[in-house]
Amino acid sequence: MGNDRYFCSHQQTILFEKSIFNKIINTIIKMKKIAIPLKDSVLCGHFGHSDVFNVFTTEDHKIINEEKLVPPPHEPGIIPQWLHQQGVTDVIAGGIGQRAIQILLDNKINVYVGVAAKDSRELVNELLNNTLQAGVNLCDH
């Protein structure tokens, strides 16, 4: 007991600490980080095929920051983990595979699927105002 030690790489430690820090901050000041997968500047019909993620940081139902992040190459489970490392709290998608949904949910990230393609900022405002229309998942795997 007392002598138990756990070893991990420096990079893993930093990512873990960043993830914990983001969750604490989000809880304290009611921030959200909302990610929207885009392909050719519009909501991508398939989460894993997006060119970029438009990530909005919100506080008290207002957008305070917007950034575009290039995801890692599409491999099963990689993008959901990457979003978790970015501190994302919510994902708005047209279509997304069940495995990706489960990984996001396991990481306490809310997932909204079957959303119609609209301007990203409009989708975020709809989510913040509880008017976002989710529907049938456009992905069948």
Walk me through the structure.
The protein has 141 residues and is an alpha/beta fold. It has a domain at 31-128: Nucleotidyltransferase, domain 5 (2-Layer Sandwich), CATH 3.30.420. The chain is built from four helices and six strands, in the order H-E-E-E-E-H-E-H-E-H. It has helices at 10-29, 78-85, 98-106, 120-128; strands at residues 31-39, 42-43, 52-59, 62-69, 90-92, 110-112. Strands 1, 2, 3, 4, 5 and 6 form a six-stranded mixed beta sheet that branches. Helix 2 (78-85) runs parallel beside helix 3. The longest helix has 20 residues, at 10-29. It starts with 9 loop residues before the first helix and ends in a 13-residue tail after the last helix.
Question: What secondary-structure arrangement, pairings included, does this model have?
Answer:
Layout: H1 10-29, E1 31-39, E2 42-43, E3 52-59, E4 62-69, H2 78-85, E5 90-92, H3 98-106, E6 110-112, H4 120-128
Parallel strand pairs: 1-5, 5-6
Antiparallel strand pairs: 1-2, 1-3, 3-4
Q: How many beta strands in the DSSP annotation?
A: 6
Order of helices and strands: HEEEEHEHEH
CATH topology of one domain: Nucleotidyltransferase, domain 5
Structural class category: alpha/beta
So, the CATH homologous superfamily of one domain?
A: Dinitrogenase iron-molybdenum cofactor biosynthesis domain
Unreliable stretches (pLDDT < 50, length at least 5) are 1-10
The number of helices is: 4
CATH class of one domain: Alpha Beta
What percent of residues adopt helix (DSSP H or I)? 25-40%
| Beta-strand content | 15-25%
